[in-house]
Amino acid sequence: MKKEKIKDQYVLQTSEHHGMPRRDFFKVLGGGIFIFFRPWGALDLTGTPAVQARGVPKDYNAFLRIAEDGTITCYTGKIEMGQGIITSLPQMMADELNVSVEKIKIIMGDTDICPWDQGTWGSQSTRIFGQLMRTATAEARGALMELGSAKLGVPVSQLIVKDGVVTDTKDPKKTVSYAQLAEGKRIEKFLDVKPSMEDFTKYKEIGKSYNRKDSLLKVTGEAKYTGDMKLPGMVFARILRPPSHATKLTSVDYSAAEKIAGTKVVRDGDFIAVLNESRDKADEAIVKIKAEYSFKELPVNDKTIYEYMVKADSTVTSVKSTGDIEAGQKLCDKVFDSEYHDPYVAHVAIETHSALAQLENGKMTVWAATQSPFGLREGIMRELGMAADKVRVITPFVGGGFGGKGEFQQGVEAAKIAKLSGKPVMLVWTREEEFFYDTFHPAGVIKVKSGIDKTGLIKFWDYNVFYSGTRGADALYEIPNIHISHHSQKNGSSPVHQFGTGAWRAPNNNTNTFAREVQIDVMAAAAGMDPLEFRRKNLKDEHLLGCLKAVADKFGYVTGKAPSGRGIGVAIGSDAGAWVAHIAEVKVDKKTGKVEVVRITCAQDMGLCINPEGATIQMEGCITMGLGYTLGEEVLFEGGKILTLSLDAYKIPLFSWLPKIETVILDRKNEPPQGGGEPAIIAIGAVVANAIFDATGARLYRMPMTPERVLEALKKV
Amino acid sequence: MEETIKFQLNGKKTESLIDPKQTLLWALRNHFGLTGTKFGCGMGFCGACTVLIDNEPVRSCQLSVGDTAGKNIITVEGLANDGKLHPVQKAFVEHDALQCGFCTPGMIMNATGLLIKNPAPSVQQIKEGMENNLCRCGAHMRIIEAVQTASKEMKGGK
C-alpha cells in the first residue's frame, strides 16, 4: 500500500460525509434528549494542512445526550491519547448544565455512535470543538428549562437549574430532575451552532484544576488500549515488509513459514501476511519468508537531503509579501544571511500502530489506535469497497499520537487481513515497522536574510522555507519589509521526500521557530544588545511581550550581552492560537561538545485556560519532548532505506536529560481558549541553540545539536 | 510443544499448560489475559513490558515463560492489595505522573522494584534507576516526584 497514493485519494473521496442514518442511531442509543447540531459551518481550518481540510458533513450529528437515567453524555469523534481532553471537555460542559464534572460521561472515537470528526490534531479540541460544544450545552440547558417549564407549569424565567434539577425559584418544592424530563422521551433539537464569545469569568468549573480522569485505570493496568482487546478465535498477524522504500517484490517463498505450527499465510498480490494464534509464532513465521526485491536507487541520504531540497525544481509560493525587501536592505547597517537545517524526526509513541479487525455478517468492526477514526473508516471503505454503514471504527485509549496516528495504514491492513482470512485479526506493528512507516516530521531548509539599522531595529526579513511547511513561519516581529516563501513539491517532478511525512506535534513550527529565533539572536548579538531587550524592542504584539515579561520574572532574568558565558538563551513563538516565551540555561562541555540543559522556564498565553493542571502537564511534556529533536533525534537514511529502526539507534529523551522545568500560564480569563498541547514545544530548539551561543559563542544552525555538531561549531568561534 | 509450568503469579500459585518458548510478555497478555504489561518494542529498549520477578524489575519481552518456572511474578495488575492502590500507583495518580499511560505500567513496576532495593533513593538515584524506561509524553518530572512521594509513604506505612 503506497502512502502518497492514499493521501491523494483521501482528498478526492472524502468531500461527501457518510453519516449514519438517524434511525440506526436511535436503535443503538435508545431514548432521552438529544441535542443535534451542525458545528462545522463555523470551523476555522487555519493551520490545518490542505490534505486534512476535508469536506464538511452535510447532516446533523448528535453531540450531547441526556439519557432517561439523567446521565449526560457527550459523544465526540475526538480521541484521548494522553492530551487530557477526557478531563477538560466535561469541564467545559459542566458549567452550562450546572452539574458536577463527575456527572458527565464522554464517549469518544466510535464511528457508529459519535458525530463525524476530521481527527484529533492541531490543538483544535478545546479552542474549536470545545467552544462549539459548550455553546451546544448552553442550548441543551435551554431545552431542559423549556421542558421543565411545561412540566412544572411555571415560566422559564422563574426557573433555576442546579445539580441536574430544575427548580421553581418561587416554590423550591416544585422540582423536576433531568432524568424525569428525559424519561420515556425522544426529544430532538437541531441547532446550527456558532461559537460565541462571552464572559468566561462567570464559570465555576472552567479554570479549575482537575487531575486526570483516566489515571486510576492507567495505573492499575485496566485501561484498554487497542492491543489489549481480545476476540474469540483471534489471530495475530505479521505482514511481510520490504527492506527499503521504493522497492518491488520480485520473488517470494513462504513454504517455510507455513511449516510453523498453526501458521496460515494470506496473500493479495504483494501483500502477504502470516497469522497465528500466538504472537511469538507469528514473529517466528514472518522471518522464515524468503523474499527478494528490486530496488530503485534513490539519489539522496540524510546528509545530502538539504542540498537536494534547495536544488530541486520546486513550486514556489509566496506566503507573505509586504513592503520592499531591497528598500529595506538599504536602510540596514548590518545584513545577515543564514541557512538552517532540520532533519526528519520520528513520532515514537510508545504504543505502536495497532488494530483489531473483525468481519462479521458483512460488517467490519475495527478497534484502532488512531487519531482519525473517521479517516480510518473512509480508508477501509475505499480500500475494501465497503459501504459506510458496513464499517465501524472504535477507538480505545490511544498510547500517544503526536500527529503520527493521524495516519491509519495499520487499520486498513488489519481489515484487509480479516477479510482475507475470515478471522478476527490483531495487528500490532513492531517498533521497526513503526519507524519504517512513520510519517516523519519533514526535513527542511530555511534560508533567511535579514538586517538591522544602527538602532537595532529589524528593517527587512526575507524568509524562504524549503519542504518543511509554513505553520509558524510568521515573522512575529514588527518589520516593515517582509517576504516569506515556501518551496514545495512540484507536480510531475521526482519526489523530494523519499518517504511519508506528516504532522508532528506543532507541525512545521519547530523548524520555523528554530530558524526565526536563532536568526533574531544572531542579530541581537551583532547589535550588541541583550537578546531579550532586542526582542522587546522589535515586538509590538502584546501577547508575546506579556509572555516575555512573565518568563523573565519567573526565571529571574538578568540582562546581559551574549555571549556572556552564562549559557542563558531566550526564544519566543506562537502556535495554535497561543503564545510562548522560553528562557533556558545550559552547560556545554567544550571538550566533548555535550550539552546539558540545566533549566527551562516557559510562559504561555493560551487565552482562557480550562484546566490549569492539564495545561501544565502538556507544557512540561512539550518541553521534555522538545529536548529530543533539539539534542539527539534524527532519522538516518540512505535512499529509501531507513537506518534508525530501533529505540537504541533512535534515542528519545531519557530521565537523565531532564532539566529543571518551570511553567507559567498567563491569566487571560477574558479571552477565548486556545491550543495547549503543542505551543510549548516549538521554541525548544531555538532556546537551547541560543543558550549554547551564550555559553560558548558557538552558533548552531542545524538540529539536532549533537556533540559532534557542537564541537564543529566551537571550532568556528 | 506445551509443558506444564508452575510459578507464582500476582500472589497466586499458578500452573499452566503452555509453550515454554513463548515470551513471558505475550504469555502474560494473551494466555493469562494480563494486558497491563505492554508491548512497546520487543527488544528490551523501552521498558513498557517491565514486571517484577522475585522483586527484580525485568523486561518480560526478553525472557521466555519457561525461564520463569518456580519464580514469583508480579505484574501491574497484582500491585493493588484488596482494592487498595500500591503507594507507587497512588503517587502516580496524585502527581498526574502520566499522560497517554502506555509506559505507565512499566514505569510503576520499575519504580516499585527500585524502591524495594533502595527505599529512600535520591533524585539522582531515581533518574538512574528509571533511565531506561521510556516515556514519550514527557511525564518524567512528575514520575520522579511520584517515586519520591511513594518512597516516603512506604517507609512510613509498610
Label this structure with key terms.
heterodimer, A: 717 residues, Aldehyde Oxidoreductase, domain 4, seven-stranded mixed sheet, five-stranded mixed sheet, 29% helix, B: 158 residues, Ubiquitin-like (UB roll), DNA polymerase, domain 1, globular
Textual characterization of the structure:
- The complex is a heterodimer of chains A (717) and B (158).
- Chain A has 717 residues and is of the alpha+beta class.
- Chain A folds into three domains: 3-211, 2-Layer Sandwich (Aldehyde Oxidoreductase, domain 4), CATH 3.30.365.10; 226-295 and 353-428, 2-Layer Sandwich (Aldehyde Oxidoreductase, domain 4), CATH 3.30.365.10; 305-345 and 440-715, Aldehyde oxidase/xanthine dehydrogenase, molybdopterin binding domain (Aldehyde Oxidoreductase, domain 4), CATH 3.30.365.
- Chain A contains 19 helices and 28 strands.
- In chain A, the strands form seven sheets. In chain A, strands 11-12-9-19-16-17-18 form a seven-stranded mixed beta sheet, with helices on both faces.
- Residues 1-20 and 40-60 of chain A have low confidence and may be disordered.
- Chain B folds into two domains: 3-78, Beta-grasp domain (Ubiquitin-like (UB roll)); 87-157, [2Fe-2S]-binding domain (DNA polymerase, domain 1), CATH 1.10.150.
- Chain B has helices spanning 24-31, 87-94, 104-117, 123-130, 140-157, and strands spanning 3-9, 12-18, 50-53, 56-59, 72-74.
- In chain B, a hairpin with a 2-residue loop joins strand 3 (50-53) and strand 4 (56-59).
- In chain B, helix 2 (87-94) packs across helix 5 and helix 3 crosses helix 5 (140-157).
- The model of chain B has no long low-confidence stretch (mean pLDDT 96).
- Chains A and B meet through helix 6, helix 8 and helix 17 of A and helix 1, helix 2, helix 3, helix 4 and helix 5 of B.
